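Protocol step 6 of 9: fold each sequence in the batch and record its structure tokens directly after the sequence line. For illustration, a two-sequence batch is reproduced in full.

Sequence one:
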Amino acid sequence: MALQISCLQFFYTTLFGAYSAFIFLRTGHFASIFVVHAFCNHMGFPNFEEVINYKGVKKIIIIILFFVGAISWSYLLYPLTEPSWYYNDSPWNLTSS
């Protein structure tokens, strides 16, 4: 059990590190990754087991909100980290052009 928990923590920490690096390369500012990290610490890891225990409409609404949040995040990731918004004109930023 401890090995499974450690592997899960390693996995999502690695993903968050890659996400933070992406945001830093796009915006060029430490403040952006500081805010993202603070927000993620505040929200915490989603407790999917708790959702399973909900009944009826509440369960459906929360599952829909999980999907809406994931889709919104993936859709807005590039527009909200546009380098020109953050005056990031460094040669190593991740522009799409």
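Sequence two, same batch, same settings:
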Amino acid sequence: MLGALTLIFACQLAGELLVAVTGLPVPGPVIGMVLLLGGLIVRGGIPEPLAAVGGALLSNLALLFVPAGVGVMLHVALIGREALPITVALLVSTAATIAVTALVMNALQRPKAEGDAGPHDDGGGGEAR
């Protein structure tokens, strides 16, 4: 369990170091997650200790939002002054996320072959029986 947690933190540290060295405009933990994902793909699966640690982190995910909530309460006056730009950014980013998700889903769907019968197609030429 300690080894799996160390692996997670090592990937995060590697991501932070990559951002510091290269100046990439991506958060270090995101790059760390990509590194971890790459390692798991190369390995061909998730080791049981890593799955257990990941499950424990996910089951206590609400606790990880406490610092963010405290930050929001600490800067509520600033958020109030900047409500319009924050709202616009949230709306635009949500719309962009929905659009990109729809485009990716559309691109990944298997095209239906012309001869394939649909789930409600009985092959009768469209006549009602």
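Proceed to step 7 once all outputs are recorded. Observation for sequence two: Helices lie at 2-22, 28-43, 48-59, 61-64, 66-74, 76-81, 83-108.
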